[in-house]
TrEMBL record:
HTH lysR-type domain boundaries: 9-66
Pfam families on file: HTH_1, LysR_substrate
Protein name as catalogued: LysR family transcriptional regulator
PROSITE patterns cross-referenced by the UniProt entry: HTH_LYSR
């Protein structure tokens, strides 16, 4: 009667054989496997009986592989490696062959940053769905992360230490003037900001608060005449000569033809970042998307 490997060969027997080969004794193998010595001896004995060969020579100085035992243990290692790889590949497939990744982002990031990245991600992992929630400002993005409504957030610094962040890009705050504006010098002055009525977002906007603080640092207090929520409306009001605006360049895009664009007298930037809740359990699909987002940007230099 031939050997029926499908019903008789056990992984536990192969594990015992490898352990004895590695440690040179049944007692040490049992210790490493957290089994009794008799259990290891039984596993080896039944394996030898089922194969009909001696795999180990036993003596007062320990146990050593026979020549055929050397060949068998090499194959046993390959089997255990392949079994572990099967489980690994299955776990990867469960994470990357379906499911949903949720992103929350402030609006200009959702418009200008994410579409290209999502297109790449969906090409690589067509079975994974991606949802994007867009908000006027970062506060709602971070609230989605806190409450578990988003896996990844696109926000801007600074954030609280409850988030782990990765800096993606610097976005300059630019001053937008109507086509008729002619600066007195090639470099904008603080006084130039008072040439037209100021158009900004309503009170409480995070970016505008950063702008007000930056200008105040250099002795210029800003007072908005118009308070408009929509970035596109603000830019088009500037194009129609109704006023000037200070906006992140990303939020101002696309800038209408004729609108004059300048850096602030002291240039100022916001740092856009990807964020997750620190120590959060992220799915394999979420990690894959986060890695793609991070790899899509050149690391920001501190110089």
């Amino acid at each position: 009667m031939g050997f029926d490997y499908q019903s008789q060969l056990k992984l536990s027997q192969l594990q015992a054989l490898i352990a004895v080969a590695d440690y040179g004794s049944f007692s040490e193998a049992a210790l490493q496997l957290q089994l009794s010595q008799s259990a290891v001896s039984y596993a080896i004995a039944t394996l030898e009986e089922e194969l009909g060969i001696s795999l180990l020579s036993r003596g007062r100085y320990g146990a050593h592989l026979t020549p055929v035992g050397e060949q068998i243990v090499d194959r046993a290692r390959q089997i255990l490696y392949l079994m572990a790889d099967i489980v690994k590949q299955a776990n990867l497939a469960k994470g990357l062959q379906g499911g949903l990744v949720r992103i929350s982002a402030f609006r200009s990031a959702g418009t200008h940053i994410l579409p290209r990245i999502i297109a790449q991600f969906c090409h690589r992992y067509p079975a994974i769905a991606v949802s994007i929630a867009e908000y006027d400002d970062r506060f709602d993005v971070e609230e989605d992360l806190r409450k578990g409504r988003a896996d990844i957030g696109i926000t801007y610094l600074p954030t609280s230490n409850e988030f782990e962040t990765w800096e993606l890009m610097r976005d300059e705050f630019v001053v937008l003037f109507p086509p008729s504006f002619e600066p007195k010098t090639t470099q904008l002055s603080w006084e130039d900001l008072r040439t037209y009525p100021l158009i900004m977002a309503p009170d409480g906007d995070g970016c505008d608060a950063m702008v007000y603080a930056h200008c105040a640092k250099y002795g210029t207090t800003l007072q908005a005449t118009y308070k408009i929520r929509s970035d596109a409306t603000i830019v088009n009001m500037v194009a129609q000569g109704l006023g000037t605006a200070i906006s992140p360049r990303l939020a101002a895009e696309p800038i209408p033809e004729g609108v004059r664009v300048f850096s602030l007298p002291v240039p100022f930037f916001r740092t856009i970042s990807a964020a997750i809740v620190a120590d959060a359990l992220i799915t394999p699909a979420g990690f894959a998307l986060l890695d793609l987002i991070k790899s899509s940007f050149v690391p920001i230099s501190n110089s």
